[in-house]
Amino acid sequence: xxxxxxxxxxxxxxxxxxxxxxxxxxxxxxxxxxxxxxxxxxxxxxxxxxxxxxxxxxxxxxxxxxxxxxxxxxxxxxxxxxxxxxxxxxxxxxxxxxxxxxxxxxxxxxxxxxxxxxxxxxxxxxxxxxxxxxxxxxxxxxxxxxxxxxxxxxxxxxxxxxxxxxxxxxxxxxxxxxxxxxxxxxxxxxxxxxxxxxxxxxxxxxxxxx
Length: 210
Ligand code: BEZ
Hints:
The chain contains six helices and eleven strands.
């Protein structure tokens, strides 16, 4: 199975560094960042988990719970966490699913056999409180991810869920946004009474609504 945008993430129960974890119960009403890495005790993964641990307050601020996954045991996760804290200067402050039997990896479709028969790829799922997939990313084992970009995308998703706007290339929090092309001129005048910049009929920008 491969999860596509707006698919519902299936529920599952699996061992984790915080004990047996049932995904829907754990997620509650929060957004979720679920990310997989290929293997414990590997260098790129070590830097990634340290990076996410340091950014955890930023995910918290956005109401996003964080959970990692690889096809390793709880014992390995716990031993590796010591290396992460020592080398990256940040303790792992979120659960790691211990998917040694690959049950959840297969459920989520994050083993790509042409990349590796045995290990998960670097997948990212941003999941909304309705358990729907809102972002997927797949990175190769040799490339560590940019988790600041994932925060930026979450900012965009949370903004555009609440306003009839989209965010342009490289948008950052506080910058101008685009009025959805589906919004008519009449509706735009109601929604954005202060007006907008019109570069073409379909490219209309306004200050970011709050
Ligand atoms: C790493 O995390 O460093 C890594 C994992 C699998 C293959 C290559 C690199």
